[in-house]
Amino acid sequence: MSALPTKPRVLLTNDDGPPGHESPYIYGLYRHLTQDLGWDVKVVIPSSQKSWIGKAYHIKDIISGRYYYPREPDGVGEISEQSRPLEKGEVAEWVLLDGTPATCANIGLHNLYHGQIDLLISGPNLGRNSSAAFALSSGTIGAALSSALSGVRSIALSYGTVLHPTPTEFYEPAHRLGARIVGHLWQNWGADEGGPRPGEVDLYNVNIPMIPELLSDTGLTVCWTRIWRNSYGRLFKAHAPRDPAVKQHTMSAAGPDSPDEPPEGTQAGLLDKKATPSDVGGLVFKFGPDMTDLINPAASSVPVGTDGWAIRKGWVSVTPLRATFAEPVEWGAESEAEMESKIWKMKL
User: What mean pLDDT is predicted for residues 18-30?
Assistant: First the structure.
């Protein structure tokens, strides 16, 4: 394998789509990757929200694309059917595709920038992707898995919503920390056997909790973790389409971590009150998960050394993964004492 560059050529994607209310993070990270780290970053993202879609490809769809021109300060910009020169105030040319995050990763790697990418970064996601219940549904991780299966180093990055809504002053320190973690991983990529890149870890899943300690001088503790093997229950509710009020109550496409959703998800409320046993018999359902035990689990239910445990402590979790929905076996820790060896000691 040829020597890797100090500054990688990056493909940046996400599952939240172009900058906006439900995709508040991608432009900030882009600026830090390009300005702080000086990396060459190409951006290929879904044209709309694609959360909770996993590593899906819509194989019968024709994938169309457009060009996007982000502007300061928040990345909101203009869409064009044709590539064109940058206009005053525009920062770069990005690509929007009418496809899934995994589709964006694959087309970016093999059709748009073939042979020009050293590292794929997927995110930052609006909301955590810690624990099996979230990770196995994540479009953010799905894009990183797609890239890893193409033999490209890949990192999924998520910002876990803790305060609702997340204070905007948390954004910049999260971006700085995320960029430093990504930079450190690139320079110190882990070892593993049997994967698409011989001798290397396939991908990493990074979760940064959006908490006030991001603003402190000491910052957040960063540690190696494994995935919390948890579970979920009901994700869908019986839908009573005859009731106009229920019709209007539709979960945001960004999922439970959207700024427009309650932090505990859709608990017993309007849908439950209006949907009767006869509605269940009508076979009409809509996404309406109860996230209480996933977002705020009891401490006793979260195993030490897992990503869920780290987020609950206010730590950053970094989980090495294989592109088989598994971790390298030697990365685990079972006690608080063993976790001491998993805490990052280096200064980022």
Answer: 97
Distance CA 122, CA 12 (A): 6
pLDDT score of 289 more than 90? no
Which tokens in the block code for residue 126? 């609006």
pTM beyond 0.70, yes or no = yes
Residues 112/30, Cβ–Cβ less than 8 Å: no
Please indicate whether residue 293 or residue 185 has the higher confidence score (pLDDT).
185
Tens of pLDDT, residue by residue over 231-261, are: 988 899 888 765 555 445 556 666 666 677 6
What percent of the chain clears pLDDT 90, i.e. is strictly above it? Answer: 71
Q: Which residues, 6+ apart, have CB-to-CB distance to 309 below 8 Å?
A: 225, 228, 302, 303
Written in H, E and C, the secondary structure of the chain is CCCCCCCCEEEEECCCCCCECCECCHHHHHHHHHHHCCCEEEEEEECCCCCCCCCCCCCCCCCCEEEEEEECCCCCEEEECCCCCCCCCECCCEEEECCCHHHHHHHHHHHHCCCCCCEEEEEEEECCCCCHHHHCCCHHHHHHHHHHCCCCEEEEEEEEECCCCCCHHHHHHHHHHHHHHHHHHHHCCCECCCCCCCCECCEEEEEEEECHHHHCCCCCCEEECECCCCCCCCCEEECCCCCHHHHHCCCCCCCCCCCCCCCCECCCCHHHHHCCHHHHHCCCEEECCECHHHHCCCHHHCCCCEHHHHHHHCCEEEEEEECCCECCHHHCCCCHHHHHHHECCCCC
pLDDT at 74: 95
What's the Cα-to-Cα distance from 19 to each of 34, 84, 238, 307, 308, rounded to whole Å? 17, 20, 33, 27, 27
